[in-house]
Amino acid sequence: MIKPSTVVFIDEKLENSFNSLKDEDPIKKSIVSAIRELKKNAFSGIQVPKNLIPKEYIKKYGIKNLWKYDLPKGWRLLYTITADNEVELISAILEWFDHQEYERRFNY
User: What is the spatial distance between Cα 40 and Cα 49, in angstroms, rounded to a whole number?
Assistant: First the structure.
């Protein structure tokens, strides 16, 4: 299923972190590429099973779904999909981190 979406950052702090990365930073380039893909298809990532969604995301953001987009070199971008008036899909980026931090967050 291919569904285009608007891509946003979950909060201003995260957006500022992204904007503070240098344009030549490989992680920023990877995130930019991921954003392009998510704009084309909100379902580009891999859905995280509901029972594995970290409780802090549910508590902090009230999310009902979580998706993982694999970035190069073991980095991960996590996002949730919501709808604006059930018409437009919105992919909200929650955070990105390396594989080690990802394992910590998910208690692997």
Answer: 23
- Of 42, 26, 108, 36, the C-alpha closest to 75 is 26
What ranges do the domains of the chain cover? 5-105
Predicted pLDDT at 88? 85
List of residues 6+ apart from 20 with CB closer than 8 A = none
Encoded tokens for 58: 């549910």
pTM for the full predicted model: 0.92
What CATH architecture is 5-105?
2-Layer Sandwich (3.30)
Average pLDDT over residues 14-21: 96
